[in-house]
User: Which sequence fits this backbone?
């Protein structure tokens, strides 16, 4: 009798477990079908319809990672940043291995002026995925904005181990070392960036400004002319070429350059007025009555800050003594040398 009772109980338990398994599997299949439908809606219908369906899914399945991720992207697309951030954070909580979501959270934290939280998020992300280049760039940008330049150097240098031929890393290091007043190392990195990307206008421009600060007029002129190969009608190039010509005593060449600069951007008149060196040719400078011919090229906020800093340094310092640049052909050797330099600092 006891054995028969045990058998009956076992059968009942088995039936209940089977039923429970079928229910769970049914819910799983139903949830998967909902996701397939959501993906289809994203492809064939408008965002509002897809958003309503995604909301329906998260109401029924609160732990559905994909639906939260989709909602985050849709809210971000419509400009609802704070709600998008909440959805991305929820997605990260549900799937810590989705590095893209970690990055999106950090990106939106920066957009909402929560830089310290963004820095922590990106530092954690780079511990999990140290070769995540976009995360490196974003972290470096935020650290630059916060004027935490030495930390930015460390971030970019770490990434060089994975991307020894990525010109943007060298270019950003050039800007960071500029702000650290380490002009020789800035030159090294700008030159490396220019070697890897010959179309890098602003790298050549910054090299020219550093050369002017160091009193190396011929070198500055060479870099300005190389920058002009990319941005032929950039007025600030003609402005600095005029300055160099004046310093070399060639007033006629300086006059030609400064008139070209003003023809492209008449607003440079105020900049000229601030520079006593233009006094010898002041009477012959032509201020155009017509609007400027060309709108100034677009630079990032970081590039503008770096350029302005170099301009200020040039105006404050007549000359700085720089070390000799050693040309290194092999990127890996260059990276190793720079890492060693960091250890010694």
Assistant:
């Amino acid at each position: 009798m006891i054995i028969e009772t045990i058998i009956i109980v076992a059968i009942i338990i088995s039936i209940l477990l089977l039923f429970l398994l079928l229910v769970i599997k049914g819910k799983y299949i139903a949830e998967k079908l909902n996701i397939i439908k959501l993906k289809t809606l994203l492809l064939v219908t408008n965002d509002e319809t897809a958003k309503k369906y995604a909301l329906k899914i998260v109401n029924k399945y609160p732990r559905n990672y994909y639906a939260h991720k989709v909602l985050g992207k849709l809210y971000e697309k419509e400009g609802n940043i704070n709600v998008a951030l909440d959805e991305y954070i929820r997605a990260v909580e549900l799937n810590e291995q989705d590095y893209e979501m970690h990055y999106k959270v950090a990106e939106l934290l920066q957009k909402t002026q929560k830089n310290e939280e963004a820095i922590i998020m990106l530092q954690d992300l780079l511990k999990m995925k140290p070769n995540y280049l976009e995360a490196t760039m974003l972290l470096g940008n935020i650290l630059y904005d916060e004027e935490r330049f030495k930390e930015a150097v460390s971030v970019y240098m770490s990434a060089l181990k994975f991307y020894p031929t990525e010109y943007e890393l060298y270019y950003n290091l050039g800007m960071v070392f500029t702000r650290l007043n380490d002009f020789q190392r800035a030159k090294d990195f700008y030159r490396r960036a220019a070697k890897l990307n010959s179309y890098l206008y602003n790298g050549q421009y910054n090299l020219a400004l550093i050369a002017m600060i160091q009193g190396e007029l011929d070198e500055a002129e060479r870099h300005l002319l190389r920058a002009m190969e990319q941005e032929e009608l950039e007025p600030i190039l003609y402005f600095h070429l005029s300055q160099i010509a004046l310093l070399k005593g060639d007033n006629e060449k300086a006059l030609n350059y400064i008139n070209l600069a003003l023809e492209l951007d008449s607003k440079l008149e105020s900049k000229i007025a601030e520079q006593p060196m233009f006094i010898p040719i002041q009477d012959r400078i032509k201020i155009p009555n017509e609007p400027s011919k060309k709108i100034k090229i677009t630079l990032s906020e970081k590039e503008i800050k770096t350029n302005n800093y170099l301009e200020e340094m040039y105006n404050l310092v007549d000359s700085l003594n720089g070390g000799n640049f050693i040309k290194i052909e092999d990127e890996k050797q260059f990276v190793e040398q720079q890492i060693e330099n960091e250890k010694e600092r």
